[in-house]
Fold these 4 entries.
Entry 1:
Amino acid sequence: MRLLLVEDEEKVSRLIVKSLTAERFAVDVAADGARGLEMAGTYDYDLIILDLMLPGLSGTDALRQIRQQNEHIPVLILTARDAIGDKVLHFEIGADDYLTKPFAFAELIARVKALLRRGAVSRANALRVGDLELDRLSQQVRRAGKRIELTAKEYSLLEYLMANAGRVVSRAMIIEHVWDQSFDGATNIVDVYVRHLRNKVDDLHERKLIRTARGVGYAISDEEAA
Amino acid sequence: MNTRSIRFRLTVWYAGLLGLLLLLFGASTYLGLRHYLNQTLNESLGRQAQQIGDSFLVDVATGGEGYVISEINEHYAPELNNRFVRVTRADGSVLYVSGKPKESSFDPSAVSAVGAPVDRDFMREVHAPGGELLIYTHPFTERTGQRYLIEVGAPYEQVEVVLYGLLLALALGFPLTVIVAISGGWLLMRRALNPVDEITRGAEQITSRNLSQRLPVAKTGDELDRLSAALNRMIERLEESFLYVSRFTADASHELRTPLTILRGELEAASGQPEVAPDLRETIGSALEETERLSRIVESLMAISRLDAGEARMERDVLDLAELAASTTEQMRLLAEDKEIALRCESEELVSIEGDRARLKQVIVNLVDNAIKYTPAGGLVGVKVRASNGRAMLEVNDNGVGIPAEALPHIFERFYRVDKARSRQMGGAGLGLSIIKAIVTAHGGQVRVESVEGKGSRFLVDLPVADKTSE
């Protein structure tokens, strides 16, 4: 998979390239809008990450012209502007997703992956992490074959963690997917739910699956914590 | 009636001044007229007395006394004209005296004689039965040297009737004029001061959120117009400085975002390295937590300055506040249970309001979250929604630690914290209540707090209910 990153802030682009390369993506970088537009027309990219505040040709104008050339390529907007009006405008022009700085890089990667598998979303009916199984059809969860009773929210949380198994998901991502943005920032609701989930999933077992990445978020995996 | 209003005071001054002027005018008219009437009567009586002497009494030697009497009666008809005429000889005997007047207002025979010898003209007042008489006395010496005393009088009543008429006219006219002046002045002042009321109403409505509004200018070119225009220019300057401050906050928040992104990215990347030592990983984690808090502060500041500047794009849906409160409270139940706090939500069936669902939900989340944070285990947190007097009321109460009285006026201020150590430990930045206030104000509502330290707090949000016709 080859991605194009149009970002003028050198440090930001270096970090994005680093984290995306770690996920085995090939990333090209353009430092301004005109160069980005040129590269988007030259190579066949799978996805474009576009910053809005660019020297010369603005991200908004670049997006318009990219859409004239190619209707289908997924475009993820990256910006320090978060006015809802801005968001609506860019979705109208043809952006596929919108991420506001400062963002968790885990979230950027999750969104990039979500955009890339769009159209052919693999929604496996059964998710499995070690001896923990989740059946999306019956909404049943078993650990080592034994049924675990979960509330609706606990189930949603576990499903989200397992769908992103092996990857750290931030509190903001969890809140956005399991609750909604109204809960953002004000509460430690995620921590409370994760603790309850741990009681039910991990407490009776030697091998702990849910892991805390301090300052980043939570992850579920079968690997021993590093 | 507001006795301190300009309208009242000006009317009182105006009426008082007018009353005083009328009083002075009335008094001078009365006195002047009385003086004039007295003088006229004096002159007329004197003229008559002299004429009686010069025209008739002069011929008494040739014509005889009978001639004199008939001439006086013929020329002056004293009984018909209400006049008193008497001619006395030097020895005191009466040559002629007029009869009772037609209206019998006085009795001529009862008028006393002048005692002392008289050598020049004079006036006197006599109290005759039936009224006061004004008498002019004129000594006259006939050609042969015979001396006579001529007296001509008229009842003073004549003058009094005129003066009484004037007094009556003044007494009736005075209050009438003053009443007309007061009501006229009152109406005139209302007309003149109406624009002031309009300016006041307009100025009352202007808040930090609608500084783009202006006061009405009637374009009459008068003083009030100039006042409106001056106020408008002041509002314009306020608007500029307000915009400047909120732009500054927005720009500053904005500029902080890119470095925060980099900081966070670097730290995340470092924390993801497998070879990082555990205690270094802890340090990085701690730095990441602080970065996240910094991001939240930046986001909150941005949100508040947008809401304050009226730049935030708000959804305007009709929604049921009771349902929103109930479902949001339900989602937070676990947080309360975790601290062994009873969380209760009581609400009426339907309280429909118009607003931004996500933001209103944020208000409820923040208030309930605060209540849970500041209530010890075993406490009680209650959420109530009701409609009263066209307002939707949301109440969040607790029986927790409460807020000290001296902190109450400040708790909605940005970055204000009641107990600094404690709330920092809770992860707050002192912006939660400011956001609540900004959201509620943007919805045309108000938020207030009642609290007793140690007993608990009660936050009350009131919002306008949705206009039924717009549903």
Note: The first strand of chain B starts at residue 84 and ends at 89.
Entry 2:
Amino acid sequence: MLSLCLRRLIQGVPTILALAVVTFFIMRLAPGGPFAGNRQLPKAVIANMERVFHLDEPIWQQFLRFLWNALQFDFGPSMTYRDYSVARLILEGAGPSFEIGLLAILLATVIGLALGVVSALRRNSWIDYGAGFICVLGVAVPIFVIGPVLQLLLGLKLGLLPVAGWGDDWRFRLLPVVVLAMPNICYIARLMRASMLEVLRTNYIRTARAKGIGMRLVLLRHALRAAVLPVVAYLGPATAITITGSVVIEQIFQLPGIGRYFHRRRAQPRLHAGDGCHVVLRHDRDRRQHADGYGAGHSRPPNPP
Amino acid sequence: MTDLAQDVAALAVSPARAALRRFRRNGLAVVSTFLLLLICLACFVVPWVLPFSGADADFANLSAPMDLFSAHPFGTDDLGRDLLVRVLEGGQVSLMLGIFGAVVAVIVSVSYGATAGYVGGKVDMLMMRTVDVMLSTPFMFLVILINVMLGQTNASLFVAVIIGLWLTPAMIARAQAVRLRNQEFILAAQAGGMTGGRIIRTHVIPNSLNVVIVYSSLLVLEAILAESFLSFLGLGVQPPNASWGTLISEGAQQLETDARLLLLPGALLTLTLLCLNYITDGLRDAFDPNDR
């Protein structure tokens, strides 16, 4: 088990490295520079600034410096926010982002699994059709439509929840988490329903039932463990959807997370903040995918069908 | 020809026609198809018929409320632009981008997947590893990189949408090409002296296309979703041009004063995505050979 984990982690290294290379060189090759937008400066001043930021070195040297600093979680100073380092911006934004993201994935997994299992067990009942319809809606209604609509309904019209913002109160978290979880709830429920139906049809479930084991025990011991596999495998892509979604969520609900730097920093060439966020988020995603690999190795059914 | 042979010939149905027949029995899918055609028709014909365009400001009617029997059935926004026309014109952008994006994504992915699958070996591994890396990179990062490279133009939006779409069908097409590689007709073509490139073009691509084509209606959905997502964030269509995403974004900002600006484009986008979803389900049920 440990060696599986380690192997997965090592497999992630070249991917992260490739990504760092692509990010770095595209940012460097793009036209413009951090000082391009400023008013005309004397040549000597620009040369001085370039020396301070090591922009006068050959590009491979800059790249190595970037890698080495990134390993120490040092991404240089922010070019937009004065006196802030990129690492500090990331750390400060990471709290809300991870909280919302983790809660959303947790919520999506729990509700998605429950919906999927129930609709598989009560196949073709009104519960199944109801859950199916909710799932279609969840895929067809984009989060940037349902988010503002819920803000309007629950926040403005009924006044039950804060419309936007961030604080210690759980009510600030409710809407962002639910909206962010919505697409994943649907995907997970669909996956779980299909795989549950497939598992329930297998011989070993029938054998277990024939031996006289109760339905509840068969479900818990045999069926669920086998049926949950596709969902565990899906949690990697789910993380990607959640990260992409959180950019929108943080804009809609005005959250102080990492996501807002992504759209704010657009059109500003050669910003270190982008590089930093990129690599950090990427790294985290990879780690989570490896955790999935671990999970998949762990929850293999005791009696493979 | 005898009568019997004629009867049999009349009864025989091509697979495509049989699939179409199955599709037509699926009520929800048929209704969705009609609804989608109606939306397309409205988007492309109505703004052309009306005397004013979405960019024309009507200063006598700023922020006019919804009134179905007036000159502006769904009212105007705070600059006096007719909301209905703006939403329909935005729909033109979204639908065109969705359809062309899906078409280009299919072409790119099938060529790529077919080449990788047919050539095999190291080339295949390299090509598919690239796909893996891109697939595990969150979409936002790719979009930002493209924006940095190409600037913020409609071309970069189009490229971003396609980059987000072509990966999964490329994997499907590759799997099909691997299956085809050792079949007799390919061997025959090789023995006959056909070059690899021509085999890929005349045999592998056409035979991989039919596997991806059912998936392509889902691509239209995803392309429209991706376009409106990016436009919502301000990375897509730039004002004064509008798409459903930018209209929803503008509407969300005026949520408190005028929810109508959000609800109309949001509802139309949702309806379109719902229709595409049911059409995809219907097509898959009709064409999927495993499910017969």
Note: The two ends of chain B are 33 Å apart (CA to CA).
Entry 3:
Amino acid sequence: MMVPSDEIREKALVVEDLVLYFQLTHGIVQAVDHVSFSLEKNRAVVVIGESGCGKTSMGRALTRLLPRNVNRYTGKVYIDGVETMSMDDETYREQVRWVKISQVPQAAMNALNPVLKLKDQVMEPLLLHEKGITQEEALERVHAVFDFVGVPDGFIERYPFELSGGMRQRVVIAMALITNPAVIVLDEPTSALDVLTQANIYNVLKRIKWEKGTSFVLITHDVATSSELADDVLVMYAGHMMEHSSAGEFFTEPLHPYAKMLMAAVPKLYGEEELQFIPGKPPSLLDPPTGCRFADRCPFAMEKCKVEPPTFRVGDRLVKCWLYEKEADEIVSSPEALAGVSA
Amino acid sequence: MGFLKSFFRELKYYPSAIVGTLIIVALLGVALYAVIAIPYHRAVYLWRGTSEVWYRNPKMVPPSWVNYFRTKKLPTTIDLDSRKEGEVQRTEKKLGDGKQIELTYEFDYTADEFPPEIVLYFYPTYAAKQPFVSGEWITPDGRKVRLGNFIVTQGYSFHMGQDKDLARRVRRMLHVDIPADIGLLVDPASLPKDTSQPVDHKDLRPLKGHYKLHLSIITFSPQDEVQAELLVYGGVYGIAGTDHLRRDLMVGLLWGTPVAMAFGLISALVIGLATMIIAAIGVWYGGVVDDLIQRITEINMVLPFLPILIMVGIFVSRSLWVIMVVTIALSIFGAGIKSYRAMFLQLRESPYIEAAQAYGAGNSRIIFLYLIPRILPMLIPGFISAIPSFVFLEASLAVLGIGDPVLPTWGKIIQDAQANAALYKGLYYWILEPSVLLMVTGLGFALLGFALDRIFNPRLRQE
């Protein structure tokens, strides 16, 4: 295995040229197509995009929770400085899952085993990954982590069905947290919850970030709520990474036409602007168009867009659009070049 | 524990479950009692049934309680043994080199039917010359019938119904042709007036009253000794009756219970669990493993189950435990795999399974801690309902003639009855007793199984 450079080792997550294709009976779905980005320690990247644009698939590619019909799964993923794509499944399970990267799944409310008590459930990752830990030590850690995410102590003897949705969500987050991983992938952690509970959960997540220094990959299409936590923003469209910026810059002025239109479709608290929508629908990933995948719906589409744009670096930001060809500082299509670029 | 408590609280609301549980508890109690009261080796010894064990029992007679339902009462066995103190009057006097022993057997005969047999068993010890016996039968109305003179050897028995001389003397006394053991007890008033007509046995009545048998024994050496036992066999016996080998059916019925329970419980439990585990493994690993399990199941399902068992019974071993192992082996890859697989396939895609995978749970952990416990509640009612089917299977095999050669089982009792034409001879008790036990067993487990199904399967619940 290639020894990663110091630069990579200092980052929580480095993704280089990640590809994940699925095999269906009638073709290949290009769910994640050559995505590269990196994430500093103690930061949160929000992955946004429409439904079916490859957000969840990318999260799964990171935690290697793949369905059986994978066609192509390549690239390099460094989690906490360790290259994981070259590991076999068993090594990955033992050394990476929950040790370096944990995950709060999409349907977090159903992610608890209905026949296990919460304490046994939350203890599971500890018992699996910290060999030789005693039941008492594990229980102590469960108490601590429950306290941290705000689950009342008495709940540890309960079964999942005895909890409200918000509490279950906290339990699932507690479980993701218990082994102190470097990165937590949150796949729409609040999508089934009401706004008050959402706010509570985000407060918990913020607290984790501040106090534990954990990095987050937050997959969502709720741009407004996720801005609470975001340090970086990654815009995905039809399997491609369209833009990668720091949150401040992104929310002030998105670069990519798709990102601009996406932001225009988000309701604002102040102001009377009418909400915009993006006409058309995302292309089928079974047979994506050649060239820029957004070109069909893009008001700025040009002749050049029939050729797939490379990823340009504009300042600290990455954008995959021909519009920025002139102001670009650099073309970062090659993965090696990307590793040196921090967002 | 809390689970069990709430489970039993729930069970209370189903009267059928209470009845079922009571039946099962009673059966288990009987099984336990049988194993403790009649240890295994004793049970096998009794059921082998050599004549020394059972000679005092009448052959193929119904249980004693049938007398409660009859107007003409059947006799119970009268057993008078000179070796036992006080049962027989005995006098001895010296006579030449040896001695003369006088034995007087006295008994009251009150039944309305004749005994099936009357037999005298002799237990002589002698130096050289066999003792000489003459006997006299005295009826309540004072008639005397000479039994004849005979010499007794070791193990000699005198069957009154089979002795030709006695038959001739009885015929001479009564002027009709009837067996001697009936003739000795018959009421002369019930005999037909017209002696030229053949006798209708239905009209014959025994004479009730005090009978005496007088034996006069001469021995030829002072050390010689003769004891004799008179057995007037009854027409009923015990709680369960007897079979063609004079065996008390109670032994077979009692010991059939633990055998049936063990066969049913072990088969159902092993098959249920193994099927579930194999189905879970197949679903979880998928691919070649699943294909292999499914193909084995399909092949196994078209194999003829009963003929294979019969072949094993004939060519390999008829031992109950061998048959059980073969039954289990053939049943594991059965229809259960298919239905469990359908449940597991659905479960495999649950978010919590994926979550478990995400936090690094290994394959076996997922199978045993995440997949199987979810299906387990479905297994329990099925398991309870499956028990009687294996009890019936064991009985069916025994009826087909591949029952265990040494152990008494309910099925073997039915097979014995069938082989001895019990129904043709009107010996219904012989078939009905084991059949009722089988049916009660099935009923008990079915009642409990249905209730459990309601408890564990909320869709069937009546709110």
Note: Residues 145 and 174 of chain A are 6 Å apart (CA to CA).
Entry 4:
Amino acid sequence: MSESESEFDAYLSLTDVTEDDHRWAFGTGFADPLAGVDVTLQAGVNPSDAAALAERCLALGDDALIYSHRLQQWVTRAPELEEETALANIALDLLGQARLLLTRAGQAEGRGRDEDQLAFFRDEREFRNVRLVERADADFAELTARLLVFSAWRLALFDRLTADPDPVLAAIAAKAVKELTYHRDYAAAWVIRLGDGTDYSHAKAQAALDALWPLVGELDLDADAAAYLDAVIAEATLTRPSAPPLAPVAGKTGRDGTHTEAMGYILAELQSVARANPDATW
Amino acid sequence: MPPSTEPPSTGWPLYEVFLRGKRGLNHVHVGSLHAADPEMALRHARDLYTRRNEAVSIWVVPADAITASSPDEKDPFFAPSGDKVYRHPTFYQIPEDVPHI
């Protein structure tokens, strides 16, 4: 950006006035992402299509739920207060996606289960999240590298889902795309900063990529997401790892309900309060 | 070891944050934050100060780039305008359909 452009940037938004903005007040202006969307399953959806929809929503909801929990574990542990708030915001975005997706999974499944029953009263083998989201981050470099891979993959996925035949899933995706774009940019900025930083931060960032790469094989990255990751890795002066994917267990991976050892501990923490007080509301 | 009485230190410089709210045409100072550079300051400002859906634009300024008036100068700076009511545009009717006044 040239000097003269940046001088004008500060004033660009001054002319950007939206119709009802002058009536805005704190606590107003919030939009329901599903406003105007009919949540009843469309007539003519045959049972196998509904089951497939439930399965897709469950898998994407579980990814968000488990990863949100991992990010929440950084609260009170982040290196700076500002980063901690950023991570809590991202965790909250993902929790919001998880709630909408699990609710939709319950509706499509048709067995009367709501978001809470799906989140808190399923056992490990019924969870469909990829194994990448279960991993505990060893340090801040691992956190940012994993967030980069996860959000680049999920953004490309949700971009396509905005055209999904199910209007609810399409509306959830449309809301999520804006959130994931921010998550991806946040993570990319940090990976570049660390990779192209000091010798020490570079080594940490490379070690982080190397550590999580075996879990990337399970993601089914599309060409756009892979190209984006390659570009960030190159700008960060890092090397794309060539580690082989983590082997399936008896042919099964996270999407089949087979998880790493970390998963049991996550669920114990995530579910114990709800299971101890099943009728509690808050 | 007794708790330290030193304020927590951060190696990052301080930035002042100005938001233009949805209901306003000007940027207003809302607080400050630490960041390594202006780009990071903008992201931090988004995360710290726009969580309640209030902003349409953010400015961040390095705190040390601001020159401030001093409390000692309050009287010579501001008192002389205190008795000049004729400088206020209060002597005519504002038309109903003129916004932002």
Note: DSSP finds two helices and three strands in chain B.
